[in-house]
Amino acid sequence: MDDEALLDLARRGDREAFAELVTRHQDGLYTMALRLLGRPEDACDVVQETFMRAYVNLPTLRGGSVRGWLYRVALNAGHDVLRRGVRRPEDPLDRGDGKILDLPDPAMGPDAVAEGRERARVVRRALLALPPDFREAVVLRDVNQLSYEEIAEALRVPLGTVKSRLSRARAMLAEALRGNTALFAVEGTL
Amino acid sequence: MAERHADPLFSAAYDGELDPGARRRFDAHLEGCARCAGAFDDYRTALDAVRMLPVVAMPATVRLPVGAPRAAPGRAALRGRLRDALLHPQPVTAAATLAAVGIAAVVLAVHHGGGSTQTTTAGSGAMAQSGAGSGGDLFRAPVPLLAPIKPVPCPVAPVPAGAAAPAAFAHAARTAAATGAELVLATPAGSYAPGESVPIYARLTTRPGASGGATAVVPCVTLETEGSAAASAPRVAVPAPPGDAAPAPANDGAAQPTPLAVATSGPQAFSAGGLSGSGRGAQASGPLLSVTIPPGIPRGTVLRLVALIPPHFAGNPGDSPIQVVLLITVR
User: Fold this and answer.
1) What is the pLDDT of residues B36-79, one digit of tens each?
2) Which residues of B touch A170 (CB under 8 A)?
3) Mutate which of B14, B47, B61, B62 to disrupt the A interface (most A C-beta within 10 Å)?
4) What is the pLDDT of residues B173-211, one digit of tens each?
C-alpha cells in the first residue's frame, strides 16, 4: 500500500495506517534531522514533533506528496528546535555521541574503521558548515534522496529554486571537501 | 561551452537531468577541458561521499496521542465560517450572531498569537506539542491530547559485565537477540501499591555467561499503561522469542501504551517490594533502577515495565530494537 493510501486511511481514523507511515519514514526523518542539526537528541525531538504535528493535522492535509509533506513538517519542527535552543548545529562526534550511532562494520579492520570515521566526520562537518537553506537542499537530495518535486514541496519553493539552490549548495560542499577527495576515493560505507 | 567552464551544469549532470543534447555537449567539453574534467571528478567524489552517509535508525520510540486523529479548525476555515455568517446570515437572533462572531474572534486571536505559542502536555518534558511552524497551512493547533507524550527516552548506560541479578528479583522476563545478547528485566515482586517504589534489575549482556570480554548496558526502562481497556485484563509477561525482538510500541496500533514514568538509577532506599537483605547488598554494584508507581492508579491495573535497547545503540548493532516487557499488577 502506498503512502497516499495509508494517509487516506489514517485521515479516517485508522491508527495502524498512521503507525505504518511512522515506521516507513521515521528513520529517514531522523537522519535528515541529524544531518541538519547535528545533535541526536534534537533529531529525536524533531521526529517526535513531526509525527505529533502530522497526526494532529491529518484532517487538514490536502494534496501533495506524503513524503514531501512530512519532510516539510520536519523542517519546520527543526527550525523551532533551533529557535528554542538558540544554538548552532554541532557534530555529534565532537561529544562522543557518534560512537553510539555510527557502529562500524565488524568485518572492517581497525584502520578501515578509523578511516571510515574520519571520512564521515569530514562530510558531516562540511554539511553542518553550509548555510541552512543550502544544507537543507543538499541533505534532502543527497542524504534522503528526495525528488526535486518532493524537495520543492518540503521547502515550499518553486522547482527552479530547488535546482539553483541545490546547484549552489553542492558547489559549496564540493569546494569544502576538495582537499579530502583522496580520503573519499575508497570503496565502502561511511 | 568551449569558451566557458561547465561548472553550472555539474549539479544537473550529476543527477542525470541534462537532456541528451546538453549531455553530449557537456561530455565533449569535459574531454577537451582538463580543468572541468578534474573539477567534475572532485564534485562527483564529494557528493558520492555525502550519499554514502548511512541512514540512521530513529533511536527512540515515536509516541502518538491516544485516539483517532483530529484537528481543530484552521484559521482559514474559521475565517470562512465568519465570512459565511456575515454574508449569509441565518434566521437567528442578533444576540446569537454576535455571540458566534465573538467566539470566532477569540479563536482567531488565539491563532494569530502565532509563532511562539506552544502547548506543553502533561508529562511531556522537553517535548512540546505545537503546530507546524512558520508559514505552513498546518496551523498551531491547541488540541488537547488524551495521553501524555513521553520525552526522548533515557540513555542506555554501560555497566561492568559479569554481575548476576540478585536472588530476590524473582519476577523476571528475558529475551535473547539475534546477536546473542540477552536482555533481562526483573523485579522482586509482581504486584505493587500506588506510591510504592519498584526496584528493577535491567541489563543487556552481549555475551551471556561469559566471564571475560562481555559488555553490558543498562537499558532505558519505562513504566507504561497500555492506555486502553485491554490494560485491565489480566495478562502474563510474554518475552519475545529468541532472535525476534518485540516491535516498538509505536506500532501497536490502537493499544498505544501510555508512559507513566521513566526508571532512574542511583542508590534508592527500597523500602518495599520484598527485597531481601542480600538484594540490598547488591544495589551498589548492580544495574539497579527504580520507578515509583504513580498514586491514584486503581487496584488490579496491569502496568508494563518496558526495557528497550534502541537499534544501533551500544550492545545492539542491529536494525531492530531489543525489548522485553514485564507486567506488574497494582495492588
Assistant:
1) 999 999 899 889 888 888 888 888 788 776 666 554 444 544 45
2) 10-11, 14, 43, 47
3) B62
4) 887 776 677 788 888 888 888 888 888 888 887 765 545
**For residue B283, how many other CB atoms are within 10 A of its CB?**
18
pTM (two decimals): 0.50
The three cell numbers locating residue B309:
535497547
Is residue A96 within 8 Å of A108, Cβ to Cβ? no
How many Cβ pairs within 8 Å bridge chains A and B?
A: 200
Q: Which of A104, A98, A80, A85 is nearest to A34 (CA)?
A: A98
Instruction: Let me know: does B174 contact B189? Beta carbons within 8 Å.
Output: no
Concatenated DSSP letters for A121-142? HHHHHHHHHS-HHHHHHHIIII
Residues with Cβ within 8 Å of B19's Cβ and at least 6 positions away in sequence, in order, are none
Bin B296: left if φ > 0, else alpha if -120 < ψ < 50, else beta: left
Residues of A in contact with B43 (CB under 8 A): 170-171, 174
Distance between CA atoms of residues B228 and B234, nearest Å: 13
- What helix, strand, coil percent values describe chain B, rounded to 5? 25, 20, 55
For residue B12, give the nearest of A148, A67, A175 by alpha carbon. A148
Report the C-alpha gap between B189 and B193 in whole angstroms.
11
* Nearest-angstrom CA–CA distance, B82 and B267: 60
Closest chain B C-alpha to A34 CA, distance in angstroms: 8
B54 chain-A contacts, CB cut-off 8 A: 31, 102, 189-190
The pLDDT value recorded for residue B226 is: 55
Cβ contact B318:B178 at 8 Å: yes
DSSP, res B239: P
- Within 171-230 of B, beta carbons closer than 8 Å to A belong to none
**Strand arrangement of the beta sheet that strand B322-330 belongs to:** B191-192, B322-330, B302-309, B220-225, B258-262
By Cβ distance, the residue of A76, A174, A189 closest to B52 is A189
Q: What residues form DSSP beta bridges with B324?
A: B307
Distance from CA of A150 to the nearest CA of B (A): 15
Q: A139 pLDDT exceeds 60?
A: yes
- State ipTM: 0.82
Residue B141 near residue B72, CB atoms below 8 Å: yes
Sign of the dihedral through C-alpha A18, A19, A20, A23: positive
